[in-house]
Amino acid sequence: xxxxxxxxxxxxxxxxxxxxxxxxxxxxxxAGKLTLGNNNQRINKIMALGYLGxxxxxxxxxxxxxxxxxxxTYNKEYCRQAAEAFAEAxxxxxxxxxxxxxxxxxxxxLFYTHKQNNKINGLKEAIFQENLVEVSSRFRWNQIMxxxxxCLITSGIKVYPTANYVDYFGMKNGLPLDDIDSGFxxxxxxxxxxPRFYKDIVVDGTKCAxxxxxxxxxxxxxxxxxxxxxxxxxxxxxGIRSGYMMTKFCPLLINDWDGYLSGNIMVLSLMRLADVxxxxxxxxxxxxxxxxAKVAGYDLTALExxxxxxxxxxxxxxxxxxxxxxxxFMGELQRERAVELAFEGHRFNDLRRWMLFLQYPYNVxxxxxxxxxxxxxxxxxxxxxxxxxxxxxxxxxxxxxxxLSQKHYWLPFKRDDVNIYPEFKQNPGW
Length: 430
Fold this sequence. Notes:
This protein is mainly alpha-helical. It has 15 helices and 8 strands.
C-alpha cells in the first residue's frame, strides 16, 4: 500500500496531464460551440490546476507529511509545487477573466439564489460545483428547512453554528475578538464586526419572518436567541442551542407560507476562487518560511493573497503584530479560512491536516449565554439589532466535548477491504 505522498504523486501526474489537454474556456473551442451556454460545469484547465495545487498542498501539510515521513511539519517541496500550480491557475484567471472574485455586493449570490427562475448561484467565482441533478428541489424540503427553529419552520433537524466558531468572525478592523486592541465589547457584541458576520450569521433580535398571516408572535418574527428565548427553549433537535443561527445558504426572511420553500437554489462550490487565493498564500508562505514570498513569474505574495480576500469583504489587512513571523501569520490565515469558507465543507479537513483536530479549543462546541439588557426597548432592538443589541451576563457554556485520539485523524477502512490481502493494513487505531 502506498503512503499518502506516493499516492499524491500519482494524482498529481494525472492532474498535470489533464491540465495540458484541457482548454481554459470550452465556449471558445470548436467542440464547445456545439454546447454553447452549457459549458460552465465542464472540467477545464483551471479546475485541473486548482486540484493539482490542492492535492500537493494536502501532501505537504503536517498530518500527511507525518504519515509519509514521520515529520509532523510542512513539507517545503510539496508546498513549493502546490504554490506553483496555484500561481499558474491564478495567472490564467487574471489573463482570461474566466474566474474572478465577486463583488461584496453580490456575496449572497455566491451561495444561493431566491426566486430567480432557478438560476444557479456561484457567479464567476465558483470553479467547481457539486452535481446539478435535481437542483431545484433537493434542498427545498430538506437542508434549507433546518436553519430555523421549529417555531418558525415546522420540520427538520436544526443546524446552527456554534458560538466558538462564530467567534472566528473578528472585527472590521481586521483584529480577532481576543486581541486587546480589537474593540470587541461584550455589552454590544455584534457591533463593528467583520462584514461577513452580517452575511452569514443571525443574531438575537434579527427579523427572520414576514407576518403574512397577521398572527405570527413577535418572539417568532424576531430571533429570540437570548438565554431562555423562544428559539432556544424548544427541545433538541427542534431548537437553537448555541445562541446563533446561519443565513449563508438561504434568505434571512423565511417562513412556510411566503413562497420561500419553492424558490431557493443552493449549489455548493467545492472550489471557488477565494479558496484558491488562500491555499496559494499558505503554500507559498510555508514553502519559503516567508509571508512576503511569491512564485517566480507571479507577482503576488502570501500576505497580499490573504489581504485580497479581506479587502473584498471590507476588512482591514492583517495587522503588523501578526506579521512578525510565519507562525503568527498562519494563525490569521487559518482564521481567514474559517471565516471566508465558513460552513462550505473545508473545516474538517483543514483541522485534520493542520493537526489541530485533537486540541482545545477545536475539540469543544460552545454556546453563548446572555440576557437582553432591558434598558433597550424591544422596538429599538428589533429596528437595529446590531447597534441596539445591548446584552448583559455574556458567558459561554459547553455543548459537547469530543473525546478524540490520534486514530481520528484518519477514517477507518471497511473490514471487508482490509481483509482482501495481508499487506492492505487498517488505519492505525481502528
